[in-house]
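tool=predict chain=A
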Amino acid sequence: MDRQTIRRFVSWLDSEGLSGKTATVYVAGVRSEQLEHGFEDPGRNDHYLSMTLKGLTNQTRPDTYKRKPLTIEHLRQLKADLFGSLIPRHDQLMLWSAFTMAFYGMLRVSEYTRAASTASKAGCSMEQIRAMGRWSSDVSNRYVRPDMVSLTQAMLRISG
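tool=predict ok
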């Protein structure tokens, strides 16, 4: 990787709307990975790169939507709505246990659900994965990792 590539990467991160702090962390990760594999540090002594990252950090971005914390009142309302619904009783109990575990364990959704990569490995098409996850754009491509064994087999079939 050369300086131009890492500069383009920073430019792309900016175009994606990431903050300067996030871009700096990503660049540090790339640089660290390069060094771990015995390659030259692409950002070493790159004044242009450091000034670009500093500029991104100083750039004001529109305030992002601040999510409000879930409260016990939200949990009570959720319980009332859930148990007042037509969902089968065993599903109500299963959902309620997931909600309470997430609430009291302060879990993120990703900590108690499976990644879309699991569906990919199970042979689901991207259209099915998008439908299951209610994806409205191609952003799912960032989260679904292809199964490397399947890709290798496909490449071997293509190459003859």
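DSSP finds nine helices and no strands in the chain. The mean pLDDT is 78.
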